[in-house]
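Let's sit down with a protein and look at its sequence and fold side by side. Please make up or recall a protein chain and show it to me in full. Label the sequence line and the structure token line clearly, so we can match residues to local backbone shapes. Go ahead whenever you are ready, and we will take it from there.
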Amino acid sequence: MLNMIWAFMILGGILCGVLTGHVEELSCAALESAGDAITLCITMAGVVALWMGLMEIAKESGLVERMTRGIAPFLHFLFPRIPKGHPALEHISTNVIANILGLGWACTPAGLKAMEALADLEKERGNPPQVASNEMCTFLIFNISSLQLVPVNMIAYRSQYGSTNPARIIAPALLATLISTLVAIAYCKWKDRREPPIRQEAEERAGDGGEAK
């Protein structure tokens, strides 16, 4: 669907340029944009390397581990059906911390590992692997809402395109992501209200097993 939308926009722009007699401007804009894209990629590669390195330093120094223990009660509130000590919680906490610090690229590997761990958890529960669990949906929605203290990506983009004050976006971004995160949490808890607790679910499964015998 997105490919079709982009193809329509590109073809529409080319057609509009040809019909209005701006073919030369269209060609110059395409070449200039290609150069800007390369420059932006080089700039963002430096930003990625910097913040990925800082994330690794934070892990080695134990900072991430301490932050993980600090947000453990919040994660238990958000994912009450994930057993304590499950690997999914570690990956989720790393993803959340990276998002809060604005390290969007650093959180992607942890997010993928969290989804894999949640899929393994569903296999242990005996649920169909092709169906997304409540925890998967909650994690995805919470990850998209992405509370950020420092929007590193946006600051880098603004700096690249000549903003006089790239960091001015911090306060509006913090407010916007705070609201989106609160809405995401409220929505997930509202949709998850009918899901049985872990103990009740385990008793129901045990009861079904006993009846089957």
The chain has a mean pLDDT of 78. The chain is about 80% helix and 0% strand.
